[in-house]
Amino acid sequence: MSFFPSNSQIQTQNADSRFQATVLVGAPSFPDAIAWSDENLIAVTSGHLVTILNPAALPFGPRGLITIKNSQPFPSGVIDRQEPCVRSISWSPVGLAPNAGCLLAVCTTQGFVKLYCSPYCDFCAEWIEVANISAKLYDYLASINFGEVWASSSKLQDVNEHEIEPEIDYDPSKQKSSNKIVRASKSKVKPAKEIPENSTLPLITADQYASRTAMLSSLVVAWSPMLHSLSKICSVPQDGSSMSLLAVGGKSGKVFVWRIPVPECYSVDQIRVPATVALIGMLQAHNSWITAIGWALLDSDSSNPKVLLATASTDGSVRIWLGNNEKLLKSSEPSHTSFSLLKEVASDAAPVFVLSVIVPTKSPDKIHLAVGKGFGSFELWICNISSQNFDKIGTYDAHGQIVTGLAWAFDGQSLYSCSQDNVIRCWILSGSSLCEVPIPSNTPRLRNSTDLPEEFVSCFGLAVSPGNLVIAWVRNTDVEQLNPMYEARTQKAIVEFFWTGGQQVDVLPNNSLHFDIEAIPGFSEELVYWESNFLWSLKQYEMQDKPLVVWDIVTALLAFNHSKPEFVDEVLIKWLSISYLGSQAGIPAETVLLNVSQSCSIVTSRRLHLLNIICRRVILSKMKADEINSKLLNLKGVLGADKEKRSLWINLLLNSEKELRERLVGFTFSALLSQMPISAPNSPSGKWFPVGLAQMEQWIKLNHDHVHGQLKVLASEVGKRDRRFKSSKCTAAEMCSYCLASVPFESPEVAICSGKGHKLVRCSISMEICPTTPTWFCTCCHRRASKPAPATLFATPDLPLNFKSLAASPLLDVSLKPSCPFCGILLQRLQPDFLLSASPT
After folding, report:
1. What percent helix, strand, coil does the chain show, rounded to 5?
2. Distance CA 273, CA 326 (A)
3. How many domains does the chain have?
4. In terms of residue numbers, what domain contains 576?
5. Does the residue 566 lie in any domain?
6. pLDDT tens digit string along 1-47?
7. What's the CA gap between 384 and 379, in Å, rounded?
8. How far apart (Å, rounded) are the C-alpha atoms in residues 541 and 235?
């Protein structure tokens, strides 16, 4: 295969083909320099900085950063220290950060690994360090004398007196925490009395120095998928039942595995250091430097999923390890037996720099493993864990220099590769063969990139969006071609975004869809692929354990809506017909909308959440969230030329949100009835107790003729119970936060005090008046919540719903879930527009 770019690769280097780009002030130097989080944030390594981007922000550009400062070395014998630079980054799954978002692990060229989370206060762009993994590693290694059974001061003193010569002494004035290094020597001996008496550090040999430095010198980090010890029912994990593993590989060939559980509770105005960051595994994975790590979760057995770890090294070896889930989830001490070797899949001695692993949804017992080599080639393996078959699909000479990025898309059927040779390629896996295809053109237009350089010399990584419809890569600019007065100083690298929704891959079963290119005049073959990929991407989000981040879907639909609105209508109507009505026939749009609107009571909460997002962000995108909320309370005044069409969509949104609100009220009443023996003020720590009961009863009275019969029965049972079981907060009388006047209940959204007419916001979960302190905020519907809701609320295992069985879930006893009950996305702190804020929709 030729090392030179084909026409399909050349077109990706044209600024006209990208729909978005941003400039970096520093240039990446290591592979996998860009990572896309599950909450829709992008991290890019750029010299001594990590730049955090929000792809949904306007104007687009850096919104957060992590500055890597020179760190004091640990007392392990390190002598020369280079300037800090970011070597490796990795996002955690959603739910580990104090605000329920993602943590970012950063590894530097000095070998330090730290964890960071987004700032929690206004007007702050610098991310906050929450854990120093390297410091914890040093403390552990020092406690076991770095595994050196003979490392005692008396023995080292005896060795020094007979056969070693001091080479370097610790000098406190130089502020270097360095052990004294001694080298074996039989020709020249100096007595131990020459060693400074005020030194408290032990002597170490050159071998000890090399060994300790290698163990403390980290090179690569990678987070595992979320592991659950209880039944998995929600996208945001819960305290004590879910955790993620952080693998840290270093120069010693060891992989240290750390366990980080979800926080005990989430907050929008406080930062909490992870309670227990535990070292649970030490794996001697290779005999040389660890250069790449990947995780996979085999979920074919939902009751006992298996976690796999893939590791690669500079010696060319690639190994797949099977984790012992019981030890990983429950062990309190580091273990050397947490992983067992399944297979070594290396075929040559070429160093490995990147790898990418995925478990296809349609084949939950297989993994697709792509391994990028230092000579520009990559290998592809398909591993069937249940049958222990490890098949090498082939070696592909795809690039002329080091492979710096590999990323799977569309459930393991599409693979993207990039290299230091500045070439990006796209591959399609069909059965057991891999073939190159052109990177799709960028059909929907958003905005033009201006005043950006067009000369690049290398590509240092790529990442795929959560919905798989966008790919981003980072390329270093050719400073020789830039204006030295300003461009060469500020434009060291560019992050570029390209559409992949038109990728020519059939990701849905052949019999599930029938495409008709001529169905709409002007439809091209590429639009057929767009339709297929839209439907596939929307389908993925029906799974409850997948975080609801649909920015790329919404953005692409909006872009198409400007030029081909009939195409957007076709896609959405087909999606509603298939997913909500179970029909693929050509049903008229009006009929589909009416039927879906009447079927909300038998649709899962996740599908209703997805429907609400599409309604608000695509169909009603020209209306502000507050305007939509007011129309949902009063459907009068729907104006415009498309009055009938818009009315159908607004009515659909109304019925969907009404159904979700009834589920919220019904769940709250059932939870109260199931906890009646427990008095609210003395509830166990962490146990959720229903609040807002009086407001919910008022809401049912106002809407008595329009709510479900089951809800009326529950309300009647609650009304008959003794009021002493209710919290003191569960009273109908509320006071204004500003003038202390009484506030009547007239709407679940807003409240007007009876004094000076202050407008107050009600909590979207409890319907109580929100306090003036920072509250949770939904970036989609702009509602607020004073307290999160239990995860059980977002699970609908049985339809039609049985509230009492749902309220009896054991997950009611654990931490709360900060997600919007109407949109399903993560709630967050409301930030100014110019600061970083994740935008899932």
Report:
1. 25, 25, 45
2. 25
3. 1
4. 517-656
5. yes
6. 333 344 334 334 455 568 888 889 889 999 999 999 999 999 999 88
7. 16
8. 10
